[in-house]
Amino acid sequence: MKILVLGGTTFFGRRLVHLLLGEGHDVTIATRGQTPDDFGDAVTRIKVDRTNQDAMREAFGNCYYDVVYDQICFNPQDAKIALGAFGNRVKRYVITSSMAVYNSKDTEITEDDFMPEQYNYDLDAQKYAYAEGKRQAEAYFFRNAAFPVVSVRVAMVVSGTDDYTGRFDYYVRHVAEHKSIGVLESEHPITYVTAWDAAEFLHFIGTKSDFVGPINAANNGYLSIQELCYEIGECLNMTPLFHVGQHEEQTLSPYAMFPYTWKILNARALSLGFEFSPIQKSISLMVQDSVSKWQRSLKDEFDALQARNMSPDAAATFARLIQDLRDQGAGKGLNIGDKAPNFTLEDATGKPVTLYEELAKGPVIIVFYRGEWCPYCNLQLKAYERIMHEIKAAGAQLIAISPQTPDHSLSMKEKHELSFFVLSDVNNKTAENYNLKYKLPDFQQAIQKRSGIELHQYNGDQTFELPVTATYIIDNNGTVIAGASEINHRTRMEPSEALKKVRSLH
Questions:
Q1: What's the rounded Cα separation, in Å, for the pair 277 and 220?
Q2: Cβ-count burial of 9 within 10 angstroms (0-12 exposed, 13-18 middle, 19+ buried)?
Q3: What's the Cα-to-Cα distance from 141 to each of 81, 146, 412, rounded to whole Å?
Q4: Contacts (Cβ under 8 Å, ≥6 apart) of 416
Q5: Of 133, 141, 386, 477, which sees the most CB atoms within 10 A?
Q6: Model-level pTM greater than 0.85?
Q7: Angle ∠(393,396,398) on CA atoms, nearest 5
Q8: 505 phi/psi in degrees, rounded to 5
């Protein structure tokens, strides 16, 4: 089959692509080209912004696919763009939706509890909440598509290996380290699905079934957060600790994001011949994977990325870049004991954030990164997100700064579900005040352009200036107590070290 996957470079989308390749399908992945993958030459890659109607039509206006998997459709505007791009040249279209389309209820939830054909959509909205965006995306597809559509309503996805949100890892680490877990006052059972089972089911429903319509993807069994933690505790021979948390105080754990009961029934999938296993059977392996992962350092992740992508020519070019930065005198940065210059920068939504106002609330970790196009920056920010609950528990917060425009900062924040400030340093003024600004050499500009990285589009200027990557821990008085800058962007402070520093301030 000729198959297109929109997205597919992270989490269960990556697993789906490997399953499709394993069966010999002709697979194309379409992404913005910012996340590295491990598919090698086995896939065709198309770089496209799926939120740009003209770009989508240019990319797919003459293409035919047996199956399209849409992993990144979040609202009816995305859906409309897809229908305009593909016309009637798709044999089967599979949307990854979410159990969030359902309203909570105490009894089991079936697909008939949300009927997208009867739901209204608003193409003129400026912004959509996640659940509402998914509802309206389904509604647009089922009411307007010229081809058969399946919406796979995925339960709460859990994984011990490639969950970039760090949610499952949070529970494993808290149980292992005997730290109290914030829960709601009353228990609410919810439904989970492992990343592997989600990928297996998407593979099945797209290539081995002719089913059309909405369908739930969920493992058997329902667990409250407390029950999940007791399952994890059995694997670790530990007893979990709990406290009642509050959303407004940010003392709740990740899966306590909603005070609802969601018991998703998977009978429709079973009737088609796909049997989900009980979630309890997968917890032990996920715990083992999680423990292995959070014992892995950021340096280990960087080394693995470099091993996959570093050719001899690339190594020589990188060495040339580092020498050029040394010749520029780039990367002096701040020293321990220096006063951190104050700044006011816009976050991803355009809201101004001022450093010294945030320092009045507690210490701040500042991370200067290059942009969402940099795979090392992506790994770094995801690593911080995995420990953000611990950073907040230490009374600290994180501010990530790049020269990207607010639109690209928003893309970064949404793509990785980042819970910390992601700020735009237009024209690198703050980076300059921190002695971090440098100009990308001409030869590197040419290499980036050949690679499809249009830096002027990300940063909104023609300067080709970037910050040297740097991390600083700032205490309440505005003093740098730890951190450093590094012209080698593959060498950065470990998030665990930053966490250790902010904890030492108590």
A1: 6
A2: buried
A3: 11, 9, 26
A4: 164, 378, 381, 382, 385
A5: 141
A6: no
A7: 115
A8: -80, -10
Per-residue pLDDT of the chain (506 residues; tens, 9 = 90+): 999 999 988 888 999 999 999 999 999 999 987 777 788 889 999 999 999 999 999 999 899 999 999 999 999 999 999 999 999 999 999 999 999 999 988 899 999 999 999 999 999 999 999 999 999 999 999 999 999 999 999 999 998 877 777 889 889 989 988 889 999 888 889 999 999 999 999 999 999 999 999 999 999 999 999 999 999 999 999 999 999 887 655 678 888 877 888 899 999 999 999 999 999 999 999 999 888 776 678 888 777 777 766 666 677 877 888 888 888 778 789 999 999 999 999 988 889 999 999 999 999 999 999 998 888 898 898 888 878 878 988 899 999 999 998 787 777 677 667 889 999 998 899 999 999 998 888 888 887 777 778 887 888 888 889 999 999 999 999 999 999 888 888 889 999 899 999 998 87
Domains and CATH numbers, the chain: 2-294 (3.40.50.720), 298-504 (3.40.30.10)
Largest CA distance in the chain: 67
Question: Quick one: tokens of 147?
Answer: 């081809």
**Bridge partner list, 30:** 6, 46
